[in-house]
From TrEMBL:
PANTHER family: NUCLEOSIDE DIPHOSPHATE KINASE (PTHR46161), NUCLEOSIDE DIPHOSPHATE KINASE DDB_G0292928-RELATED (PTHR46161:SF3). It is an enzyme of class 2 (transferase). It comes from Flammeovirga agarivorans. The keyword Metal-binding applies. Pfam families: NDK. Its EC number is 2.7.4.6. Residues 9-146 form the Nucleoside diphosphate kinase-like domain. InterPro entries: NDK-like_dom (IPR034907), NDK-like_dom_sf (IPR036850), Nucleoside_diP_kinase (IPR001564). Belongs to the NDK family. NCBIfam families: PRK00668.1. This is nucleoside-diphosphate kinase. Keywords: ATP-binding, Kinase, Magnesium, Metal-binding, Nucleotide metabolism, Nucleotide-binding, Phosphoprotein, Transferase. The active site is at H123. One of its GO terms (biological process) is UTP biosynthetic process.
Length: 157
């Protein structure tokens, strides 16, 4: 297999969070993502197990709301996707808006669809290294390499 790793800054990782209301918005959110110039490199709908959610959000493990986040993120399926674009991490954080949707700018996904910080509709990686880690958390090697051994995202294995 060709030993090729994508350049930093070319992709980010996102999740559309669980919940009836968010399910209704999936199409519109994907349209906003597309219209902002992102290309979907990989996508799937998957329900996290408790241990997986605890691992994914371990940077929040000392926060009082940690258990609420884990409970919520395991309450139904998420749409996980890897998005390609130049300057992907920063541009996507701009597109999703502030963690607290009341502070999110007009035109952002959270401003448009989110009602509260704990149900803020979408996740977006906050660094290139986290984008690679989160993308490889969700997508196996077989989902990241094409037949020629070209790796679409993640830093190798
Ligand atoms: P981010 O999602 O904008 O990167 P983080 O600080 O990484 O924000 O927090 C991860 C998630 O934890 C948030 O998206 C939100 O769902 C939840 N969260 C963050 N702060 C709070 C809070 O003060 N109360 C409840 N939930 C929170």
């Amino acid at each position: 297999m060709e030993n090729y790793a994508p350049k930093k800054g070319t992709f980010t990782f996102t999740m559309i969070k669980p919940g009836e209301e968010n399910q209704d918005y999936i199409g519109e959110i994907l349209t906003m993502i597309h219209d902002a110039g992102f290309r979907i490199q990989a996508m799937k709908m998957v329900r996290l197990r408790t241990k997986q959610a605890e691992m994914f959000y371990r940077h929040l493990s000392d926060q009082p709301f940690f258990q609420d986040v884990v409970n919520y993120m395991t309450s139904g399926p998420v749409v996980a996707a890897v998005l390609e674009k130049d300057n992907a991490v920063a541009d996507y954080r701009k597109l999703i808006g502030a963690t607290d949707p009341t502070k999110a700018e007009d035109g952002t996904i959270r401003k448009r669809f989110a009602r509260s910080t704990d149900r803020n509709v979408v996740h977006g990686s906050d660094s290139d290294d986290n984008a690679a880690e989160e993308a490889t958390f969700f997508f196996s090697m077989g989902e990241r390499y094409n037949n020629e051994g070209h790796c679409f995202f993640g830093w190798g294995n």
